[in-house]
Every structure is written in structure tokens, then in C-alpha cells.
Design brief:
heterodimer, A: 293 residues, mainly alpha, ABC transporter involved in vitamin B12 uptake, BtuC, 11 helices, 3% strand, globular, B: 333 residues, two-stranded antiparallel sheet, 15 helices, 2 strands, 1% strand
């Protein structure tokens, strides 16, 4: 029983990292219905930059955090400038934009490989590698960091979307981009901001996870797929959905890894995701028929 | 009454025939084994690009599962040949039919999804099937794959040499091109295309969108299965890496680069991407970075693909040519 709880709790930390990634996918999706395939690579970039800034350059943790999120935001804005901006000016379809983000994800992957190498990197945990024992269950210090970061991130997201003028503009642009333009919202610049914020959030997920699971250029696509899976299980664009989806995914992965095998675990995960899609084609947390396209 | 202009109708057919013949003869006549190898890869890619173009270009269903169905075809052919010992032509039938059946069963629920959800759904199908290839080791040999294929012998003729086998590949590719153009211009194909353009309008006009989507998914997966069988007999070794998500992405790039919703576009895209991959091969990892930039550049600067660029150039030339004549006519009137 202790072993089972231990496994589930290790899945929770992993799941929250996926939840943050799913949240970052939702930040872009909920406003512009764009599925950004580069989010996984940006999470990988966060892990790699975390290793560079925190483990190699020995920056203090808050400074390293800012450097990682800032670096990822920069790459996210570069992505916007190279794909979303020129394509939406030419009235390209959403699917072509999605395919362009797929092209950009390849660019990130190879650029990271060429500059930081293909080795598996771990960032050192900020609170050391000590563990806490509660009733026979061991928790790693990084678990607490991830939980705290998730809570803070959710609070920040809630504040931005409900209390700030940026959030108001985002919600307006999501409902009607044309009308938003008429009342003076610069929708094009808003897309840039959203891509920057989404990229910074994905980078945060990678930085938080890197003491627990390695980052390497080859893992980005896997991250993207896991992030999409988490977002879809909860319902694309839904904030509570992202958290629940991430947790479900993390716990299933941890259980499958312990009790079955990691590869059959993948098979089960994707089979589960398809099943959820078949039963609720827009995820668990989304009204059926609400923007299913 | 027949006029000289009627002859123009046969121009595309003549062009097609000469290109088909050239693509068949030139690689063999060159006698160069490297050219033959590239041409073989290109022929298989043409089949894959044509199949995804029918599904995505005409029927509007984006799929990330092309590699999975390519793999099902390849594994079916390989297992039936090496374990059961079936001859080439007989092994070809299940290698085509089984991907079609799997696509039908999987597609029935998956193709109910729309837009981004469909993209993610087919992504999950691809990944689940890749995981199956890797894990069902007793059947698929796991990540190590299966050795032991041999080039086919058909009706007493051996296709062991690269040149002879290339004939099989190019004849199949040409056959698939003819099939794809027949489908597009048929009543059924136009209905599928209507579903792709606007499935709600199509269903209002009495078509069943799900029928067309699922049948098209099944049919194009059969084409991918054929490509898989040809691939297995060409390389003589298969492993899950050849059929993973990256393969699906490359085929999607072929369709986008060549020109969505155009069969010649699919052929051009398959040829160009195959050559780009071969030329950039020496550049190592850097190749893929250029590959990514190439996809973005095409989407931004040539949204209708390379074939669209050719069309625009031809129209501009035609307009310029007619402009120089037009004012003179105007003065008389």
C-alpha cells in the first residue's frame, strides 16, 4: 500500500509539470485556437537552459529562473515573428499555421542540439537532494518546489485573465478578433505577447522537471505529445482541465512504469486518450459543441 | 466538328505519359546504383504523398498517422514472407488490405473529431501503433526489427537487381497516380472533396460526411500499406524507426511543399523533399534545421506550394503576353 501511494505521489510531481505544459499550450490555444507544436521543444529548451544557467553558470535560483523563462519567451516571440505573424498577414488557414509551428519545432530541436549538445542533462535541485519522510513515504524536495510553483502559476494566470487589462483584451480577442480591433486592441501584438507568455510557461515546466527527469534535444517531441495529451484529456483551452489532465497523465505514467513497462505504458496512455476523445470529443472539462473546431 | 484546339485536351495526358516514361527509364538507363536507390525512395514517397494529399488535400482530414499505416503494410508483408513464406504477389494483398481494415476501425471514431482534435487524435493513433511495433517483440522483433527479406520473384521473373525492382516501384507509383486522379475526378471523389471543403454544407446536400471521411482514410491507408510492402522488399530490413511520427511529418511536408489539393503537387513535393534530404545528408543534423526552415518558408512565401508558384508564374506570363496585344485591339474599337 505504501509502495502504491509512493508511486502515485511520484506521478503527481511529474503530472504537475505536464499540467504546467498543458497550461502553456492552453494560453495560446484559448485565445487564438492555434495548436503550437513547438511547446514541447520550448519545455525541453527550458530544461537545457536551466542546466546552463543554474548548474553550469551557478546563477542564484531566482535569477536562473528569470533567465530561463526570458530565454524561452524570446524564442517564442521569434517563433511568432517567423510563423504566426507572416502567415496570419497572408490569411493562411489555421492548419497551415499549425504545420509551420511544427517546422519551427524542428528548428529549435536542432539549434539546441548544435549549441548545447545531445547529452541528457539534469539541473541540480534548488533545495538539495534531501528527502522528507512522512509515514513511510519519501518525498523529494523538488516535489514541493513543483507543487508551490504550480499553485503560484495558477494564481498568476487567474489574476492576469480576470483582473488585468491584458486578460480583458485576451478574452475579448478570443471572442471576436475583428470587434477587438475596432475598439483599439492590437490583436497582432497580443498574439506576440501570448506566444511569449506561452513559451515562458513551457520553459518553466522544463526547468522545474529537469532535476527529476533529464532534458535532451530528442525529448522535445515527446513533451509536446504529453502536453497535448494532458490538454486534450482536460479539454483544450480549459485551465482546470489542464491540471486534471496533467495529473491523470502523470499518475498513469508512474503506475504503468512501475507495474507494466514504460513502452506498454505509452500504448496505454494513447489508447486512454483516444478513448476519452471518443467519449467526450472536446475533453472532460469542455461543454460539448463549444468551439469544437 | 473537330478543331485543332481539341488537340490541346491531350496535352496533359501526353505530358504525363512522357514524365512517367522518363521517370521509369532514366534511372535504369543511368545504371548508377545510387541514382536507382534515390529514385526507389522517391517512388515510394510519391505513393505516400499522393495518399496523404487525397486525405488531407481533398478530403480535409489532417493525419499524423501515415507512418503507422506504412509500417503496418511493411510488417504484414515482411512477417508473411519470412515466417509464413508467402510469395510476393500473395503477400501484397494482406499488406494492402490489413492497413485498410485497421484504418476503417480506427477511423470510425477518430474521424468524428474535427480540426485540432483530429490532428491530436491521429497523432495518438500513430504513437500507439509505434509503441505496438516496439513492444510486440514476438511478432515484430521489437526495436531490433526483422531481417531476412528477399527481393521478389514474380511469374518466374526475378526482381533481385535494383534496376528490375525499381520497375516494380515506378509502375506502382504511376498506377497510384492514375488511381488518385481518377478518384479526384469521379463523382465519389468530388463528393469527398465537398465534405473536405465544408462538411456541414455537404451533409445538408444529402451526403454522409463520416462515410466519405472513413472510406477515404481506409483507401489512403491501403495506398500507404502498398508503399510499406514495397519499402520492405526494397530495404530488406524493417524496424520501428522507419515508421515513426517523423516519417508522418516528412510526408506531410511533401504535401505542403508540393501544393495541397494537387496530385502533381504531391509528386513534385515527394521528389523535392527526397532530393533535399539526400543533398543535405552530408550536413548531418544541420539538415533537419534547414528542413524546418524550408517548410516555414514554403508556407509563408508559396502557400499553394511549388505547383502554385508555377501556376502563378504561368498566369503572369500569359497576362503580360496578352497585355501587349490588347491596346491595339482597343484602338480599333
Amino acid at each position: 500500500m505504501t509502495f502504491l501511494i509512493q508511486t502515485i505521489l511520484s506521478g503527481v510531481a511529474l503530472g504537475l509539470a505536464y499540467a504546467i505544459l498543458a497550461l502553456s499550450i492552453n494560453i495560446i490555444y484559448s485565445t487564438f485556437n492555434i495548436l503550437n507544436f513547438a511547446q514541447g521543444e520550448l519545455m525541453m529548451l527550458g530544461g537545457m537552459l536551466g542546466w546552463v544557467f543554474y548548474s553550469q553558470l551557478n546563477l542564484p535560483y531566482p535569477l536562473a529562473l528569470i533567465a530561463v523563462m526570458g530565454g524561452c519567451a524570446g524564442v517564442g516571440i521569434l517563433e511568432w515573428a517567423m510563423t504566426v505573424w507572416p502567415l496570419s498577414r497572408r490569411h493562411a488557414t489555421l492548419i497551415s499555421i499549425v504545420i509551420a509551428t511544427l517546422g519551427f519545432s524542428i528548428v529549435i530541436r536542432i539549434a539546441v542540439l548544435l549549441t548545447m549538445g545531445g547529452v541528457e542533462r539534469f539541473a541540480r535541485p534548488p533545495l538539495g537532494s534531501s528527502t522528507v519522510e512522512i509515514g513511510g513515504i519519501h518525498l523529494v524536495s523538488q516535489d514541493f518546489v513543483i507543487v508551490l510553483a504550480t499553485v503560484l502559476l495558477l494564481l498568476a494566470t487567474w489574476w492576469v485573465y480576470t483582473r488585468s487589462s491584458l486578460g480583458l483584451a485576451l478574452r475579448a480577442a478570443a471572442i471576436n478578433p475583428e470587434a477587438s480591433r475596432l475598439v483599439g486592441i492590437n490583436v497582432s501584438r497580443l498574439t506576440m505577447v501570448v506566444f511569449g507568455l506561452g513559451a515562458a510557461t513551457a520553459g518553466l515546466a522544463g526547468f522545474l522537471l529537469s532535476p527529476l527527469a533529464y532534458a535532451s534535444p530528442s525529448i522535445g517531441l515527446d513533451f509536446a505529445i504529453l502536453g497535448f495529451t494532458a490538454a486534450v484529456i482536460g479539454g483544450l483551452g480549459s485551465w482546470p482541465g489542464a491540471v486534471v489532465g496533467g495529473l491523470v497523465l502523470g499518475v498513469i505514467e508512474a503506475l504503468a512504469f512501475r507495474y507494466v513497462s514504460s513502452q506498454w505504458g505509452d500504448f496505454l496512455t494513447f489508447a486512454l486518450m483516444l478513448t476519452i476523445l471518443y467519449i467526450r470529443p472536446t475533453g472532460l472539462f469542455r461543454e460539448l459543441g463549444a468551439s469544437s473546431a | 466538328m473537330r478543331t485543332f484546339r481539341d488537340g490541346a485536351r491531350y496535352l496533359p495526358a501526353a505530358g504525363f505519359l512522357s514524365i512517367a516514361l522518363a521517370s521509369l527509364i532514366v534511372p535504369i538507363a543511368s545504371g548508377n546504383s545510387y541514382i536507382l536507390e534515390v529514385a526507389s525512395v522517391m517512388g515510394i514517397s510519391v505513393i505516400l504523398a499522393l495518399s496523404l494529399n487525397l486525405l488531407y488535400g481533398y478530403t480535409g482530414q489532417l493525419s499524423f498517422a501515415t507512418g503507422a499505416f506504412l509500417g503496418i503494410g511493411a510488417y504484414t508483408a515482411t512477417i508473411l514472407t519470412t515466417v509464413v513464406g508467402l510469395p510476393f504477389l500473395v503477400s501484397l494483398i494482406p499488406a494492402i488490405v490489413i492497413p485498410g481494415l485497421v484504418a476503417y476501425v480506427v477511423g470510425l471514431p477518430t474521424l468524428q473529431l474535427r480540426g485540432n482534435y483530429l490532428a491530436i487524435g491521429t497523432l495518438a493513433v500513430q504513437l500507439a501503433i509505434t509503441a505496438f511495433f516496439q513492444q510486440a517483440s514476438s511478432l515484430t522483433g521489437g526495436t531490433l526489427g526483422i531481417f531476412g527479406m528477399q527481393r521478389p520473384t514474380m511469374l518466374g521473373i526475378s526482381f533481385a537487381s535494383d534496376g528490375a525492382y525499381y520497375v516494380l516501384i515506378s509502375v506502382s507509383a504511376i498506377g497510384c497516380y492514375i488511381l488518385a486522379s481518377r478518384i479526384v475526378s469521379s463523382r465519389w471523389g468530388r463528393a469527398a472533396s465537398a465534405v473536405g471543403t465544408d462538411d456541414i454544407a455537404a451533409s445538408a446536400m444529402g451526403m454522409n460526411p463520416t462515410h466519405y471521411k472513413v472510406m477515404m482514410f481506409s483507401l489512403t491507408s491501403m495506398m500507404a500499406g502498398l508503399a510499406g510492402a514495397l519499402f520492405a522488399y526494397q530495404l530488406l530490413f524493417i524496424s520501428p524507426v522507419s515508421f515513426d511520427i517523423n516519417e508522418s511529418i516528412v510526408v506531410l511536408a511533401m504535401v505542403v511543399v508540393g501544393g495541397v489539393r494537387s496530385n502533381p503537387g504531391a509528386v513534385v513535393g515527394a521528389a523535392v523533399i527526397t532530393i533535399v534530404q539526400q543533398v543535405l545528408f552530408g550536413a548531418g543534423q544541420f539538415e533537419f534545421l534547414l528542413f524546418g526552415l524550408f517548410i516555414i518558408a514554403t508556407l509563408v512565401f508559396a502557400p499553394r506550394g511549388l505547383v502554385g508558384v508555377v501556376g502563378t508564374v504561368a498566369r503572369t506570363a500569359h497576362r503580360l503576353a496578352s497585355k501587349s496585344v490588347a491596346p491595339r485591339v482597343g484602338r480599333h474599337v
